[in-house]
Amino acid sequence: MIAAKKISDWSDKELIGGYLREQNTLYFTHLYRRYASKVFAKCISMLSDEGLARDATQDIFIKILLNLAKFGEQSSFSTWIYSITYNYCIDQIRKRKKGILLFTEDIERVKEEAEVEVPDSVILEMKHDQLTKVLEEIPPGDKAILLMKYIDELQIKEIAGVLNKSESAIKMQIMRAKQRAEIIYKEKYGNEFAAF
């Protein structure tokens, strides 16, 4: 006799299907337990406030629950949740800072100068506390895209899916965000990267 698989071992797809068929909150509770800490971590990294991050996490899961039937499996469930989380946090940042430019691409449209490739080491060699201070000073969209690339280690294709942009646009935004981070770093800490 084959033992039934424990519900905690079900895939995301199985849990979603179970919830949509039976409307039993047990299935959604397992999805919540699986992803709540990741959503909270992303919210706190973007919103920089624990209370706002807690509230945002709850709001995001309500949104996920209400839209679960719309999940079309074009991407993984975790990428879909990431996209909802990212968009929710950006909306919150916009509300707090009305009129802010979200990406340095908006600034770059005004001035036309040659693009300079910035190596990943610009971000990777910054000390954690210095990087945190630098990220607080760049536009929220730039901060988010750098977090996706270097902290969450998302591939360009995944970031493009989250932001609903082309891969080449994402590459350009990452490059510009790195340029902005490098400028702010040099203003704050000088030209030399501190050794670890």
Keywords for this structure?
elongated, 10 helices, 196 residues, Rna Polymerase Sigma Factor, Chain: A, single chain, 2 domains, mainly alpha
What order do the SSEs take from the amino end to the carboxyl end, as H and E?
Answer: HHHHHHHHHH
Mean pLDDT: 79
Q: Give the low-confidence spans.
A: 104-114
- CATH C-level class of the largest domain: Mainly Alpha
Question: CATH homologous superfamily of the largest domain, by name?
Answer: RNA polymerase sigma factor, region 2, helix turn helix motif
Looking at the overall shape, the CATH architecture of the largest domain is Orthogonal Bundle
Helix segment tally: 10
What structural class do you assign from the helix and strand content? mainly alpha
Shape: elongated
Distance between the termini: 57 Å
Secondary structure: elements and pairs:
Layout: H1 12-22, H2 25-47, H3 50-67, H4 77-96, H5 104-108, H6 121-124, H7 128-137, H8 140-151, H9 156-163, H10 167-189
Helix pairs in contact: 1-2, 2-3, 2-4, 3-4, 4-9, 7-10, 8-10, 9-10
Give the structure's gist in a few sentences.
The protein is mostly helical and 196 residues long. Helices cover 68% and strands 0% of the residues. The chain folds into two domains: 7-96, Rna Polymerase Sigma Factor, Chain: A, CATH 1.10.1740.10; 104-189, PhyR, sigma-like (SL) domain (Butyryl-CoA Dehydrogenase, subunit A, domain 3, Up-down Bundle).
Any overview of this molecule?
The chain is mainly alpha-helical. It has 2 domains: 7-96, RNA polymerase sigma factor, region 2, helix turn helix motif (Rna Polymerase Sigma Factor, Chain: A, Orthogonal Bundle); 104-189, Up-down Bundle (Butyryl-CoA Dehydrogenase, subunit A, domain 3). The protein has 10 helices and no strands. Helix 8 packs across helix 10 (167-189).
